[in-house]
Amino acid sequence: MKLDLKRQKMLLAGEWTDREETIDVRNPENDDLIATVPLASIDDMEKAIQLAKKGAIVSSNLPVHKRMSILNKAADYVLAHVEEYAKTIALEGSKTIREARKEASRCVETLRLSAEEARRITGETIPFDQSPGGEGRLGYYESGPIGIIGAITPFNDPLNLVAHKIGPAIAAGNAIIVKPASITPLSALFLAEAFTHAELPNGILSVLTGPGSVIGDYLMTHPAVRMISFTGGMEAGLTIAKKAGLKKKSMELGSNSPVIVLNDADIEEAVASCVSGAFWAAGQNCIGVQRMYVQEDVYAEFKQQFVQQAKAYKVGFKLDKQTDMGPLISETEAKRVEFIVDDAVRSGALLLCGGNRTEAFYEPTVLENVPSDCHLGNEEIFGPVALLYKINSLEQAIHEANQTEYGLQAGLFTKDLNVAFKVIRELNVGGIMINDSSDFRIDAMPFGGTKQSGLGREGVRFAVQEMTEQKVVCFKMG
Description:
CATH topology of the largest domain: Aldehyde Dehydrogenase, Chain A, domain 1
Helix content: 25-40%
InterPro entries: Ald_DH/histidinol_DH, Ald_DH_C, Ald_DH_N, Aldehyde_DH_dom, ALDH-related_metabolic_enz
Keywords: Oxidoreductase
Radius of gyration: 23 Å
Family: Belongs to the aldehyde dehydrogenase family.
CATH superfamily of the largest domain: Aldehyde Dehydrogenase, Chain A, domain 1
Strand order of the largest sheet: 14-17-18-13-12-19-20
Protein name: Glyceraldehyde-3-phosphate dehydrogenase (NADP+)
GO molecular function, one term: glyceraldehyde-3-phosphate dehydrogenase (NADP+) (non-phosphorylating) activity
């Protein structure tokens, strides 16, 4: 990889661009300066949008085989440098090197899937004579690109979530402008390098670094940008929904995912899955396990094993292969989590383990009997904190799991197929994992939530559908 970690440039419509004013990128583990990136201005964003208008035309006219070739070459580049990508993810973010390697590998798969989906953008014939007056007509609909996509991405998956925006956008023949999280911009810029290596024509892709309140707002409200694809928190999503105006929106927002563990569950399997789901990436994961509803006959056993494994979780240096969990993304975030947990304890929750902070590090934390009227009982914690609740019946578990404004994913552990289908019918979520925690996803599946957890679906095939529009063609025969 040619890019200099110390002085990074941003990609403006295919051209690597620097600016005098910069943003520091720091390692949350020790606050060391990793790199600087340009502080993009509104003028930079306006230029990117104007060039993207031309880029969108170029992209829409790229033959499908060319789009596929570019996406596969970009995937090849990431694969050839996968360890450098993983190290970058780990250095600028919260993930351990083992977690970062998994994300880098998933990025390769996301780009490969995007190449495959480019060939599957099709339409259908329409029998116009199904309606009176439609006789003598022949036609079809086809799917085509929207134009310019604006993408705003979060810090917790700084490479693969960017790939989930760029890959489908290019597959569908759009231009795309990415505004990555200011705290973790390097992975997005290195992914842009893969596309320049793959000879993506200029104008189709920009990755601009700067504050969301300035260039992000300008991107989302500009009339030439016909779709906003956003991954982030619920409050930011509501703000975008109000500001963006009349354009398509795809939003993957937050959650406080529930997992139901019933008496017939394999407890060892359930505990191992939920521990990983709760503390992966220091709990900064929208489908991470937050609320666990465990049936009373197995509650004591589940609780004992879960707390034991949480205490054994190794917290430490991210680049150490033995480390299970690194720091949160900043000390400010760790203090926020600490305050919310302390508030829950003051409100009557019982702290079973954890609850201690050292700078940006926060221990894996487990509580039980968290009151429903405190912040932790209702909102997304986005940190390494898991809540245990004893339930008497399946009906109680379903009721409690649904008592939230979120509905992204859920987990269920049971050996009873009839029970599984009852929960599938009655849980109001976008995805339910049977005999898995809520924290399971593959990049090909439809991914998104109900209620305040988002709009639309990601997952490559489904993102491509979101990033296309249908055009009807009708011939009146002579």
